[in-house]
Predict the structure of T-lymphocyte activation antigen CD80.
Amino acid sequence: MDHTLKWGIPSKRPYLKLFQLLVLAGLFYFCSGIIQVTKTVKEAAMLSCDYNISTEELKRVRIYWQKDNEMVLAVMSGKVTVWPRYENRTITDVTSNLCIVILALRLSDNGTYTCVIQKPEKGSYKLKHRTSVKLMVRADFPVPSITDLGNPSPNNRRIICSTSGGFPKPHLSWLENGEELNSTNTTLSQDPETELYTISSELDFNMTSNHSFVCLVKYGGLTVSQTFNWQK
């Protein structure tokens, strides 16, 4: 018999809170060799529970997905409940290893996700399966672009270097022959929703000499750079 999975926001039901506490209590011990999934921001990640059940059996089992100590999704009596932070961007596929797919990944989605399967046995629900998947969400800065802004004053030229869409907080510096230069203006902003950074910096230089400038952006343990050459 086919069943339609229904989505919803958890209501204030005492038994649901009790189940949540029971699930949390059983997750202090994790199996070794946790699977790791690495994705970038805004992509989709599929996390597998590595467990198969029939559609008919779905009516009787309880399935919980949670991240660290936070509930993500639950399937009870064939009905799916998605917690608010994952609503409208998390789906489950009971026909494929009880996996969940998280869409439009955010940096805050980093963490360890655990799938718990409980089945009825002698009047109560017993733990039958538990697996964990570590999700790592990256946000790499693209190679910076350097744009010529023209002449702010006679014999002087102004250029701007910028890059966006990365994390963590970056640092931008201008270099010439390995020496750091003083920039004219540096701006840094962070998108409140995606947590991604945008950074830009302007540099003024004397047009009467040849130059080779490097715009270097550091974030975490990574760097990206771009070179600008000027011939007088």
Observations:
- Confidence is low (pLDDT under 50) at residues 1-32.
- The chain has one helix and 17 strands.
